[in-house]
Amino acid sequence: MRLPFFVYGTLRPGGRNHDVFLRGRTRSEEPGLLPGAVLYEGPGYPYAVEQHGGTVRGEIVAPLPEAYGELLDALDRLEDCVPGDPRSLYERVDRDVTASDGRTVRAWVYFAAPAVAARLRAHGTPIEGGDWPARR
């Protein structure tokens, strides 16, 4: 599936990975919300964890068609996402996100992998408001 990506951490505009990975590879970027998730502090980057009652703020990023495959591979590597590998830090799943105009958009989201999510739920520090750049 060639879905847009919902990014919520270092890939957001102004984040340290935005220009490295996304500049020149996107058709559009717009604010969005991911319901049913909580954002947790990580070691210099956040983790989204599926959890009722939370909302994560981020951007819906639509890649250029000609850049899609390369960008998908690059983001999977950045997020240490290897499908089926229990050592992965993240897993990429498709979820509904809400665009700023109220539209529902199906997008790829990198969630904390199950073992990481369990540790975060038990001992992690949630980011109030679900907004990584606003956490300070």
From TrEMBL:
Q: Which Pfam families match?
A: GGACT
- State the superkingdom: Bacteria
* Matches recorded under InterPro entries: AIG2-like_dom (IPR009288), GGCT-like (IPR013024), GGCT-like_sf (IPR036568)
- Which residue numbers delimit the Gamma-glutamylcyclotransferase AIG2-like domain? 5-133
Identification of the protein by name: Gamma-glutamylcyclotransferase family protein
- What organism is listed for this UniProt entry? Streptomyces chiangmaiensis
